[in-house]
Amino acid sequence: MRWLAAAIQVAQRRYKLTNLLLLLLRCLIMLLAALALARPSLAGLGRGGKLVLVVDASASMGARGNDPGPLAEVRAALTKAALPRRVSVLTVADRPRLIASGNDQEALAALERLAAEPLPGGLDRAAEETQVESVLAECGVDADVVLISDFQQDDGERLVARLRPRCRSVVRWVVGAPASNALVTGLGAMPDLVPNQPGELLFTRQGRGDGVRLSVDGGPATPALATVGGDRVRLALPPLEAGRHRLVVELVDGGLAYDNRLELDLLVRPQVATLIVQDQVDYLGAALTADTQQLANRVRRAADLAAAAELPTGGLLALRSRVPVGAAIATWVRAGGVLWADLGMLADDAQLKELAAGVALGERLVAGGALASGDPEIDEVLSLAGIDRLAEPQLPPTAEVLLRAGTVPVVAALPVGRGWVIVELANLAAHREFEARGTTPLWVRRTVRAYTARADQARLWIAGQAPPITLPLVLRRAGAVATAHADEPLRIAPGLWQAESGPAVVMLPNPDEGRLERRPPAAAKTTAELPLPQAAGADWGLPLLVAALLVLIGEGLLAAWAGKTYGR
């Protein structure tokens, strides 16, 4: 019995040790499973997590005067930083682009080649439904994403919301500092230059500059004489010969460079062909025939105008009597001609009536007032005449008012195809005070030359805004090709673009892109506290899960052996 008791004690000790080992294994399984769910990252071990840099490459990230700009600041900071082994770099301008996906050296080399594109935008451009998938494809569950921008156009909040559920962390890194900037924002009117005579160009700007430079036909840019009044700049133009000329106006400032240029294709015309159809002379015929230097006039009686071939190509038809060639005139206007006629004459002709669609005179008479064209030089004398009461007109939204009596339109211009119809809404020939004004011929001449130039005149569009078109339009410039779509913002660089159909397009810089005084988001980090992951190690979630499975198998085998051994 003594020997039997000793054997039982040995067996119990072994049984207890086996149970303790099984308990430890089961506890280890629970611990490994919990750690696997927590996915610990051990610094310095394994390949490390993935770093994804999403860099704003739109225009505001470029050089600012003598400052190399925010992108240069990014390159300098990342060159000194300790990057993980796996780095992807995406840029956002007109759309997201993957420029590097590999090791840290490849990422730094790609950033060294990166330059800001002259396009409006911001990081939230990448959050749009048609763009975001290319960003999400680079961001896995182990990715740390850093959004890099000056955050002048947006705060990146939409992109942050799209990325947070898909990656380990998202931080914003603000580069650059708020600064002043001057840019060209508009054009008062295309100048109507007379050959070999000086002229002027009126444009608008935003911000304050240090001067203006002008280049003509590819020549050197030289300081130009400019008069500044608020945001309006009057620039003196040198005498130019008849023909087409390329003008480049450049603001001088310490801000962004891409938005300082205004490129124009300017046609200097010696004379404008005009055809006056009249049976008796009124103010319009007298004003036109009084100018023989800038207008090439021909006068016909209504009965003599039977051939459409007499209509001046790209010129003006002053229709003061009814004619039998209404259909030919309508076709001529749509092709780029300018017709000047009374509303009653247009309404009485079935072929010409469509040219004044949307224009009507009400039965109610309204109070008028002094005449005004909007040109201070003309209105100083023209305003001495006036119309007391006249029928209240209705105009389509596309109409441009050329003359008012008080606040009531008297003469309006309607776009028809590539041409224009100038409609008199009141009988101006009956107002002797208007005819007697010395500025009336000047107003007529300027109106004729301005609108006859509109058919081939470049259109003014603004980058970042939807163009006023209904069909897609292909634009070309210096080897670059872009397509403008209706209702879609233009992601096109400023400058002069040639269109496949119709006149050229002068693309103006986006005024919002030129504002550099916006404060960055409060949650964004600065360069002084570089928001890169600190020594991110490997994600040990999957290895720990595999280890828990192996321990579980071992525990099962040990439990089976113990049951077989001690269950006898």
Describe this structure in words.
The structure is a single chain. The protein has 568 residues and is α/β, with parallel strands linked by helices. The protein folds into 4 domains: 2-40 and 542-566; 50-179 and 524-539, Rossmann fold (3-Layer(aba) Sandwich); 183-269 and 457-508, Immunoglobulin-like, CATH 2.60.40; 272-452, Class I glutamine amidotransferase (GATase) domain (Rossmann fold, 3-Layer(aba) Sandwich). The chain is built from 12 helices and 29 strands. The protein has a 9-stranded mixed beta sheet with strand order 16-15-17-18-23-22-21-19-20. A 5-stranded mixed beta sheet has the order 4-3-2-5-6. Helix 1 packs antiparallel against helix 12 and helix 6 packs across helix 11 (440-452).
Average pLDDT value?
86
Secondary-structure arrangement, i.e. CATH architecture of the largest domain: 3-Layer(aba) Sandwich
Strand content: 25-35%
CATH class of the largest domain: Alpha Beta
Neighbour order of strands in the largest sheet: 16-15-17-18-23-22-21-19-20
Shape: elongated
Write down the domain tally. Answer: 4
- Indicate the low-confidence ranges by residue numbers: 43-47
Helical fraction: 25-40%
The tally of beta strands, per DSSP, is 29
Structural class determined from secondary elements: alpha/beta
- Biggest sheet character: 9 strands, mixed
Look up the CATH topology of the largest domain. Rossmann fold
Distance between the termini: 20 Å
Assigned CATH superfamily of the largest domain? Class I glutamine amidotransferase (GATase) domain
